[in-house]
């Protein structure tokens, strides 16, 4: 079994047993797997695969929604202890991130922490935010890049409205999407009119770099 699958398998056992110590140990281990690049990006991939497995078991009726909830809460708490605090954006806002409409916020947390580790300040617009609210924030802040995370398919479709409204206002903000619907349907990002997609949190710094030319002067992109 490949290391990603092996760790995700152990993580599933640990979260379902609500074994916080084991969850922490697996997350720390995953951050130290140097052969896989290690760090928060790999830990995010382990987490994503493990929770996807938990979600599939919920779909078959083998698990209750409360178990999915507890699994995610446990992972969230452990990751909050382990990952760096987001770097606060000062002055001009260049990057912003939101979990659009739905409240699945773990993917956003991982992306934010990777960008923090790279020294890229991001304004966090929060989770469960409506298209109206996001358009309002972007009009005020005018970020170069807006990172959008969605896990519910209906939320992913709302990205289309978001992109159309930003363009109608002639805002230059580039929209980068990520999350389960875009992983499951790799071409969905083009249909909703986004400028780029990230299939894993570890891709975020490189996408931002490509879209903005950030780091041309050598400002610490390390992923
Ligand atoms: C945990 C979970 C929950 C938790 C959320 C807790 C929390 N605080 O986030 C709880 C229990 C609350 C929950 C509730 C619900 N959930 Co839920 N949930 C999940 C589950 C099992 C895991 C999601 C997760 O946290 N993954 C871990 C993170 C780290 O991984 P990730 O999000 O994939 O992100 C990775 C990458 O995609 C990437 N990434 C993510 N975003 C972005 C953005 C950018 C820009 C980039 C570059 C990268 C990137 O970075 C991460 C690391 O690499 C998924 C299953 C799945 N297949 O994803 C279902 C799932 C998303 N849920 C689902 C559903 C239906 C619901 C509910 C409607 C259930 C209900 N009947 O109430 C509610 C809706 C709540 C709401 N209003 O939002 C469905 C969605 C189906 C669909 N097609 O729309 C799924 C797919 C389960 C399933 N198989 O049916 N859920």
Q: What's the short version?
A:
The chain has helices spanning 3-16, 20-31, 39-59, 65-82, 106-117, 131-141, 153-168, 180-184, 188-191, 204-212, and strands at 95-100, 123-129, 145-149, 174-178, 196-198. It is of the alpha/beta class and 223 residues long. Residues 44-45, 47-48, 51-52, 54-55, 59, 65, 68-69, 72, 76, 102-107, 110-111, 147, 149, 151-153, 176-180, 183, 198, 200-201, 203-204 line the site of cobalamin (B12).
Can you describe this structure?
There is one protein chain. The chain has helices spanning 3-16, 20-31, 39-59, 65-82, 106-117, 131-141, 153-168, 180-184, 188-191, 204-212, and strands at residues 95-100, 123-129, 145-149, 174-178, 196-198. The protein has 223 residues and is of the alpha/beta class. The protein has a five-stranded parallel sheet with strand order 2-1-3-4-5, with helices on both faces. Residues 215-223 have low confidence and may be disordered. Bound molecules: cobalamin. Residues 44-45, 47-48, 51-52, 54-55, 59, 65, 68-69, 72, 76, 102-107, 110-111, 147, 149, 151-153, 176-180, 183, 198, 200-201, 203-204 line the site of cobalamin.
């Amino acid at each position: 079994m490949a290391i990603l699958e092996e760790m995700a398998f152990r993580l599933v056992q640990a979260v379902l047993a609500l074994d916080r110590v084991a969850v922490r140990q697996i997350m720390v281990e995953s951050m130290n797997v140097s052969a896989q690049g290690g760090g928060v990006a790999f830990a995010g991939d382990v987490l994503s695969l493990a929770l996807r497995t938990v979600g599939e078991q919920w779909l078959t009726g083998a698990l209750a929604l409360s178990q999915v909830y507890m699994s995610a809460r446990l992972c969230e708490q452990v990751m909050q202890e382990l990952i760096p605090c987001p770097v606060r954006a000062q002055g001009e806002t260049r990057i912003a991130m939101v979990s659009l409409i739905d409240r699945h916020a773990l993917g956003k947390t991982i992306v934010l922490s990777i960008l923090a580790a790279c020294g890229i300040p991001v304004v966090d617009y929060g989770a469960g935010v409506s298209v109206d609210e996001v358009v309002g924030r972007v009009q005020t802040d005018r970020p170069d890049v807006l990172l959008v995370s969605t896990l519910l398919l209906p939320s992913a479709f709302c990205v289309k409205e978001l992109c159309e409204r930003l363009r109608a206002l002639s805002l230059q903000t580039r929209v980068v999407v990520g999350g389960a619907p875009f992983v499951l349907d790799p071409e969905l990002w083009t249909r909703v009119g986004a400028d780029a997609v990230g299939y894993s949190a570890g891709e975020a710094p490189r996408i931002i770099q490509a879209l903005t030319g950030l780091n041309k002067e050598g400002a610490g992109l390390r992923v």
